[in-house]
Amino acid sequence: MALSLGLARCSAEVPQSAGNEPRAGATAAAGDAGGGASPVGGSTPSGTAGSGGGTGSTESGGTETGGSGIGGGGTTASGAGGMPAGSAGADSVAGAPAGGANGSCGSNAIVCEDFEQYPTASAPGGGWTPALRGDGKIVVDATRAFSGKQSLHVSGKMAKDHANISRPIQTTSPTAYVRFMYYGTSYPASAGVHTRLARIGTTEAASGDPYTSYSLASYNGTAIEKVNSIYLRDTGTKLNDPKLLNRWACLEFAVDMSGGAGKVKVQIWVDGQELKLSAAGSSSHGMTTASWDPIALEVFMLGLDGYQDDAQLADFWIDDLSITPQRVGCKAAP
Q1: pLDDT, tens digit, for every residue of 259-300?
Q2: Assigned fold of 21-324
Q3: In this predicted model, which residue has the larger pLDDT, 91 or 313?
Q4: φ/ψ of residue 9, rounded to 5
Q5: How much is the pLDDT for 47?
Q6: Interval 7-64: pLDDT, tens
């Protein structure tokens, strides 16, 4: 399904105001400069990711400049969806649920979660750690579910509220494919409002320090950023698009580090359709292209995480989450 809204001008990016990263003491800027990065299909080593929690660090932004367009899927080794297949040695996190996505996570899933095993009205356990601020809420509920009877409900306002969950992960794979079902009834304006829906990275990811994680972000479009460098994004696809609200949508993103230093590749899919990503951002941190180096994948973070104030309530549900070395793709509702 093609999602199409008006094209946001990269050169008119609203600078980020001082915001609220989940952990105290770190200052990060989300500016980036246009450049010549490309979507996944390439390769990169795997990294470690960090745990979430806390409040207090800030993000300052730079002025964005438009970047060069980047093609969708190139030719690559045999992995699903045009990406090289990940190494088979990925280890599942101890205690990670075996369910999720109708059992479609595969035998070597890094995380497979359907939120069915937890009590409602509270944040999930089983290795997940919540981080909350203000009126932000992140709880398991039975209001709606893509499969089974339960899903994860997240709500709050940017940027005064914060609500996410994180968990440590373990993998030796140079590729990570993140897939989850998303049901949004309301989401902040994408233009000029920087949010991060999911992050995967080092144990310092929650600090917001530069180059500690890759995030699926919303900032004048749907993007992947290497916190905190330039963005690779599709300005015509936004989480507040009416075509994406009030229904279950399948969101996927991939990080491929098998190419090594300077050659990390990324991809995003919405309902199985790969987005066309272009580079944009500011060079305020000395980053002028998306020639990203690999980082360790040690932590995964998910939820409400934003940096500019927005009166619009974020209210969404997540179900059937998987993180896998190879792409598993979207599944039809049971």
Answers
A1: 999 899 999 999 999 999 998 876 555 556 677 889 999 999
A2: Jelly Rolls (2.60.120)
A3: 313
A4: -80, 120
A5: 39
A6: 233 333 444 333 334 333 333 333 333 333 444 443 333 333 333 433 333 343 333 4
Instruction: Burial-class residue 6 by CB neighbours within 10 Å (0-12, 13-18, 19+).
Output: exposed
Beta pairing, strands 313-324 & 151-157: antiparallel
> Kind and range of the H or E element at 162?
strand 162-168
| Domain definitions of the chain by residue range | 21-324
Two structure tokens written together for 144: 């709606």
User: Which phi and psi angles does 84 have, rounded to 5°?
Assistant: -60, 145
Q: Are 99 and 92 in contact (CB under 8 A)?
A: no
Q: Which residues pair with 258 in a beta bridge?
A: 44
The answer to whether 305 touches 225, Cβ cutoff 8 Å, is no
- Pick the closest to residue 331 from 29, 106, 13 (CA basis): 106
332 φ, ψ to 5°?
A: -70, 150
Q: What whole-number distance in Å separates Cα of residue 12 and Cα of residue 66?
A: 9
The sheet carrying 222-227 orders its strands as 65-69, 278-281, 231-234, 222-227, 213-218, 195-201, 299-304, 162-168, 129-133
